[in-house]
Amino acid sequence: MASADDLTFHEFEEATNLLAETPDAATTSRSDQLTPQGHVAVAVGSGGSYGAEDEVEEESDKAALLQEQQQQPGFWTFSYYQSFFDVDTSQVLNRIKGSLLPWPGHNFVRHHLRNRPDLYGPFWICATLAFVLAVTGNLTLVLAQRRDPSIHYSPQFHKVTVAGISIYCYAWLVPLALWGFLRWRKGVRERMGPYTFLETVCVYGYSLFVFIPMVVLWLIPVPWLQWLFGALALGLSATGLVFTLWPVVREDTRLVAMVLLSAVVLLHALLAVGCKLYFFQSLPPENVAPPPQITSLPSNIALPPTLPQSMPPS
Prior knowledge:
transmembrane; small GTPase binding; 11 helices; Yip5/YIPF1/YIPF2; 2% strand; Protein YIPF
């Protein structure tokens, strides 16, 4: 008859062999987990400990449920807009880099925004672009006056207002119209899933960043070089918009998709050309001093005789 020590030895040997065959198995050596006969319990699992995973999933579900139950602040409160400015510098720089380097199949919304659109980047990009437009437009006249002293320069402060209104209206009204059209087409084509309004505004805001260095390069007084820089900047910005909008509009008919993308590119081109012609236009006539004109009297008009000089008294 085998002794208790021999039975225990065989049980541990069986457990060792089982662990060698299944590396993911786990042994429980606590006294409260022993079998009624005193045997060692061996828990075998293919994916590790299921209990820990279930606890993690349960906690994540509770956190998501609590987040959904939290009352969302109204759009008239400051806390509603505070979340759209909650970004750090690395995120903004990453999104700017994504707008400068468009790539086929690389969706700006999916790869950079990731369901977290911000208004911080678009707001300051539009403000910087408007300021740079007004300043460089005035600097163009200053440099022209240095080359030609006959040009009279006076500061044109109204360009700051014109630039700000133009840029901010474009960055908000065009995305609003585009978002409304895509929402309407979603009712016609159920497979379409348009971006949110804030995502559309964010895409347009970051797409304007490339115009800032373009405007600075427009200070070079070479017309064909200015148009070349404008074409390159317009190509990069419009390409990024097309690559971002294509996954949404491709679910629609081919005609609607082509017309919509053409309208997006055309409006972008009108913005660039309008800035070039207004802020960097040739000097108006009132800023150029007219050349001095020498008027000659008709030949039939007799000149008055010169008075003789009086002789000093001797």
